């Protein structure tokens, strides 16, 4: 699942494959930009911003993409067989003399002027893995609405950028509270450590092929994806529920014994 760490890894792969080279192939398979042609332009850089990717090319243009739940960019050597999914799921192809980047299942893909990037990422809070990281600002953002459930506050990219469902669940476990606890009720000492704990988790995983929050070799995650399995600490069965208004898929996992605070009733 793409979150701040995996998006940064994708940006690194794309930058390594494309930056400083002339595009010899360009195919944007979304109706609005289907006629756009970037061939002949040099790719300047590929930069992550939270969970967004900004591929900048000469001429003042930026290709903006967002992976959301299951989008991905794959890089192939020319002549190598593509293996990211069926052709009808491809939304973008960018290639040079040696490599081809293919974007699969991209829910957001748009071409804009580089000077207009703020229109798509200007609303984001401090990037947990970016040069603009500011823990004090991130904490102030999180506490703007004390009644908001902690899990929803963490997922709001306007507060801090880079957290998705996995890190939301894992952070709440490490803090010992449920994702439904109003953030204003989080104990003061845990509130103070929240931004840097989030940063530490993403930093630890920024270059790892397999995400880990536990430090264990036998199990990578404390609660995420472990519904009905025993908690790694207390052996109570981990629970799962969706969080939010239902407009997006927000799978949420927690241990009802280790984490204190409100939670949906079993079977709800």
UniProtKB/TrEMBL annotation:
Gene3D superfamilies: 1.10.8.50, MutM-like, N-terminal
EC code(s) of this entry: 4.2.99.18
Organism: Streptomyces pratens
Domain of life: Bacteria
Protein name: DNA-(apurinic or apyrimidinic site) lyase
Pfam families according to UniProt: Fapy_DNA_glyco
Domain FPG-type, residue spans: 222-260
Species classification: Bacteria, Bacillati, Actinomycetota, Actinomycetes, Kitasatosporales
Residues of the Formamidopyrimidine-DNA glycosylase catalytic domain: 2-91
Entry similarity comment: Belongs to the FPG family.
InterPro entries linked: FPG_cat (IPR012319), FPG_N (IPR035937), H2TH_FPG (IPR015886), Nei2_N (IPR044090), Ribosomal_uS13-like_H2TH (IPR010979), Znf_DNA_glyclase/AP_lyase (IPR000214)
Keywords: DNA damage, DNA repair, DNA-binding, Glycosidase, Hydrolase, Lyase, Metal-binding, Multifunctional enzyme, Zinc, Zinc-finger
